[in-house]
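Shift notes (night). Ran Carboxypeptidase D, a while the centrifuge was going.
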Amino acid sequence: MLPFFEKCSSAFKLRGSLFVFLLPLVVFLGDARIQRTPVSGKEMSETYNKYYNYNELTERLQQLARRYPSIANLSSVGQSVEGRELWVMRVTVDPDKDTPGKPKFKYVGNMHGDETVSRQVLVYLVEYLLAQYGEDPRVTALVNSTDIYIMPSMNPDGFERSKEGDCPGDNGGRNNARNKDLNRSFPDQYDGTTTDADSVPEVMAVIRWIQEKKFVLSGNLHGGTVVASYPFDDSAKHQRQGFYSQSADDALFRYLALVYSQNHPVMKTGKPNCPEDSSETFEDGITNGAHWYDVPGGMQDYNYIYGNCLEITMELSCCKHPNSNELRKEWDLNRESLLAYMEKVHIGVRGFVTDAVSGAPLSNVSIVVAGIRHNLTTAKYGDYYRLLLPGTYNVTAVAAGHLSKTVRNVQVIEGEATELNFTLAPLVNKTQKNISLDTTSMPPRVHQQNATVSPSILSPTEPVLPEEDKSRAPVHPPVHQPLQPQEFRHHNYADMDLFLRKYSSEFPSITHLHSIGRSVENRELFVMVISDNPKVHEHGEPEFKYVGNMHGNEVVGRELLLNLIEYLCVNYGTDPEVTELVNNTRIHIMPSMNPDGYEVAREGDVQGYKGRNNSNNFDLNRNFPDQYVNITEPRQPETIAVMNWLKTVPFVLSANLHGGSLVVNYPFDDATDGNSHYSKSPDDAVFQQVSRAYSQENPLMHEGHPCKDLYSEDFFQDGITNGAQWYSVPGGMQDWNYVNTNCFEVTIELSCIKYPMARELPQYWEQNHRGLLQFIHQVHTGVKGTVSDIGDGSGIPNATISVEGIKHNVTTARAGDYWRLLVPGTYSVTASAHGYKPVTILATVSKDRAEIVDFRLTRVYQDGNGQTPSGPYPTQNPSEKELQSLIKELSLGQGLEQLVSSSATDSSFRYRSSKDLSAFLRGLTLNFPKITFLHSLGQSVEFRTISALEISNKPTEAEPSEPKIRFVAGIHGNAPVGTEMLLEFAAFLCINYGKNPAITKLINSTRIFIVPSVNPDGREQAVEKQCTSAQGKTNANGKDLDTDFFGNASQRVVEPQPETKSMMNFIMNNKFTLSVALDGGSLVVTYPYDKPVQTVENEGTLKYLASVYANNHPKMHLGDTACSNNVQNGVMRAAERQSHMGSMKDFSMDFGNCPEITVYTGCCFFPPADQLAALWAENKKALLGMLVEVHKGVRGVVRDKKGKPIVGAIIVINGGMRVYSTEGGYFHALLAPGSHNVEAVADGYQQKHQKCVGVSVCSLSYLAVNVSSRQKDGFHRLRQHREDYDDEIRLASMGSKKSLLANEFQDESESDEETLYANKI
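Came back to this:
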């Protein structure tokens, strides 16, 4: 027998002409006719006793897709001969997206139209997966981790001709409408393709589908006996029966077939006892296909040889078209087999292959397993899934233009896949050093048809690699040419909206579309983010932006930015330059800052003003605050949105695209005297450098005489100009960027004509696309690095980076990373931060890359005499150090995201009655007695218990040093989503305790209290699927409980409701650090107060806490939903949403001294239960984020000089917010990152005003102060310390409480007076 690949290759060459012709169709077609059918008609309930004809099948599948949109998507991959759709139901989380790392599985049924059991069984399987998702842990895990595709009928025409009760298939229907057997019509490894493509559209559609999706595992369901058949289905000899045609993965195929058969009560016996041949038996219920009988042109062999997919064929029933009363029995026989077989897609080895230089994913890389002569290739994201049996393997990744890499002794264990990622180094052609090789677009050198090695020389431990033709000279790959945009037209707002959404949906792994606000006329200000991790700022990766169409009638920038979006998306992963930029830069593109103006502008406008301004007739480029001129015009919504946007993202470099000339204009745009002359910024050299980087890529711009016919007097040396030298522009955006943020911005004038004709747009792309790319490259020049604490390594936010000789500083981002653009040269660069010693480093900057300059700063620590003490600092508690390391890890980068993904639990969602809720809570205490305790807070009007579940490692013991966090839901009974979220959250924490190290540490270090339902009576009255109804909002006495919390007797005219009283006592008796309340009817987070107040003390911290939740929610931080219009960053003060008195939030603040935020989880008060899983997925990370946040801020312990803890000392934050030292003298104050004033007051002790500097965004801050020498009017300066030593607040005894002091003073010698200490825990 010839080696497999030689046979495959020769047969393919001889008889594969049709298949070769069809391959282009395979590459370019893909899914067709995605159905979006309106909901209509009454949904059917499953009876398991009838067959669905085509119309009924269509209706059934459409209803299921509508009912389960979050996990089901119905599409058609093609049509049959008679025009019937080949329906495929995709079942997975986010079924409209492709998620890298999720293997694709498929089932295909009814290939022979008269073999009908498979058709119905697959419909039942779809129903089962959808209905049991969130209920059955096994199904939930399968759907979460697998991309499942189910095609109930590949031959709908044949089914319509088949007759119920026809067991042998005598009445027809087996073949398609052109009388072709579909399972003899696929390209064959021995015979090529022998069937005309036009006669088998069903086969062609499935071929396209297989090639596009790169399935990993598949099952083809048939009828006529009961057995699982595996490849190969035929042989070169085409012996009718009895010839075992063994594939390279024969052992694996046998195993997979056994998985199905051994879970099928009849199949596993090997004795189907079919009337047609009652003597036929199959050992263990499986058979090699060709050994059973020869099937050329079969689908399962095509999948294996040409499709990257392992497929077996399952024969489900002796009778091909049994009576419908047999269907329930057939479903029961096959259900477990269907599920068990699907689960095997998660065995073997899996991982990603990326380019070592660019980090780009490499597709079509061959994954070679030593000793197995069958290679698979990576998919479009570089992901691969190589199914293997348990054992030890040598695995090699082979890609064109790259060095191969082998990993030896890879262990594969039973039941789960081993993760194995490859990073391949590109080959460099010494004669073409400056040419980048395309990493993914060229065909791989290793292909299964060519991978032949003589068995006599094959080492059992070496991979099967291709033989080289040494007689030919080496052929070098051609220089890569990136794909260019294909469509050039003017996009109005609706067209632009669709364009952006299209590319966002087609390239979800590298794009993030969001709106930063709205225009005057309520149009979205869209921003497309393009990066390899587009939704988050990655540490060390610079942020870049382009803004277009600020003047509505200057449109070239708008169209070029849409072209640029297309260019970056379609070339990512194939073009080295694009891939490098996207992987290493977070690129923000706003095509239109003035969409209202654009809509009134007119094509052909050369020098006009129609549409230039916004709808309020203000010029947006004269509307920003100016350093020299007082801008009196009201700030416009577009301007405000951009300013807020720049406050949330640490942009480094930017360009504002205009029209009306051809030049790059750089700061300053105006001068102190208001006249037009050169107004030089401190970074004039940098601005000239980045401006020339653009202009020199546009020859017409660079020559300096751009618009001779319109402005003959204009001349710009090298195509660049200082803004004020050209003409003065007060209130411009580029100067505001530079003066008020870290961002360097220039203005690029792209066209002499403001609104050129559409036919001219291609020439503008040709002239400017290299400049657009080259300008992005400039963000990677100068110096960059991280400023961190030398003690614990944590990044220092808001540290200052100054360069000697340049009077313009930049500051570090939240995690301490920074970027400072500079021209080549040697510089003295200094990093400084409050509470730290500055550090200066000499850095030499080169031309084409950023120099990495990291700073490690030492905290300033002084003793009572203002001197730096000698000797080592006392060390921190190891457990505390470990906790802070965890908090830092979870606060930076993808820490929380990784925690969420590593701590998945099987979830079951439904709305629970009060009785079920109580039973659930009791169940948690019974199953997890060591970490839970159930507190009864009181009873409702109708005597339902209001419970609080405590989760801690010592729930029955007082642990005053640990922060307490309160999660509350159900204060409004008509909004029960929060109740279910908190119940799931409680189960999630308990189940992961002892299993997930991070969850375990958080529980060990926190006292967590969960109150799922404050208003159980109202919940009993509320009705599911009522999105706006107030039924159940109040308690049984008709009282809105969130208006019943009054702490002062003078404010209360009646007794509090029993539910309110229970919560008030609970809040007052427990010194909580933070509270999170869940409600419904909106998608926003609010912070105190609900009552109307002029000012909110410590508002910055309260707003920050709310933003932590919103930023960890995938939708909320966008700030715009149907029910919460234009809420900046998804956060607002509660009174601005709906002002009212007597709220739980206000009571918690005023009387519990605990900040409380309210999370509104969705627009619908009481959504259908099938939406709960999606809502949990949206809120899980945010809830965990609050558990992390409660460990930040400032905390300590207050003791007197003798070491006795002082209870009741008042810690006043920023003159308003107060916290009190509790049992053991402990206190804890949550603070936003930055500097804060802290005052400590205690009876009998001198009051001190301290300043806590630089609270970190990612860790807990501790206090260190100078020691007061005597009773002297003045303040002490308090510094932030997170070092591993004990820090103190020492207050001199006064004998009585005094008023707060006001002036700073210098400390002198220490006295013997009694002192009060605040020590670090």
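The first strand starts at residue 72 and ends at 79. The CA atoms of residues 22 and 204 lie 8 Å apart.
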